Amino acid sequence: MPDAIVPSVLNSYVRDWNMSPGLEHDGFVFMTGFTGSNENGHLSSDPREQFEHAFEKVRLVLEEAGLGFEHIVEMTSYHVGLREHLELFKEVRAATVSEPYPAWTAIEVAGFVRDGAVVELRCIARRT
To answer: How does DSSP classify residue 41?
Structure first.
């Protein structure tokens, strides 16, 4: 049976959306896609801040599971305006992940549920 991973600051995912921020099954942690709003729900117009907040949510789920960024095996990032901010996203990502780097796919999308969001970040981690 999968185990939900719900850091307290992400309780709204369960309460408002009926989804777990993370779900562990057979040593893998599958994460919900995280947009770049801060813990108060504010969504900055600055892409860098959005990227940093999305990675922060991933960190919260990893820590709740007793893991770190080194446990991420796959990352998918969805972007509005991918070409305009890919280099900036790569900078923020490079400051977070380390070798061996996770597999990564970046995808351009038309938009997200939340107006103004420019990124959604989804990761899979594995216990070693």
So the answer is: S
Tokens of 113: 């549920």
**Which stretches within the chain are classed as H helix?**
11-17, 47-64, 82-94
* Residue 116 buriedness (CB in 10 A; 0-12 / 13-18 / 19+): middle
Q: Are strands 72-79 and 103-108 parallel, antiparallel or unpaired?
A: parallel
Helices and strands (DSSP H and E) totals, the chain: 3, 7
User: pLDDT tens digits for 46-78?
Assistant: 999 999 999 999 999 999 999 999 999 999 999
Give me the architecture of the 3-111 domain, per CATH: 2-Layer Sandwich (3.30)
Write down the pTM of the prediction.
0.96
Of 2, 54, 8, nearest to 32 by C-alpha is 54
Q: What span, in angstroms and rounded, lies between the C-alpha atoms of 38 and 114?
A: 13
d(CA 51, CA 25): 27
Amino acid at 57: K
Q: Which two tokens stand for residue 19?
A: 């989804």
User: What are the structural domain ranges in the chain?
Assistant: 3-111
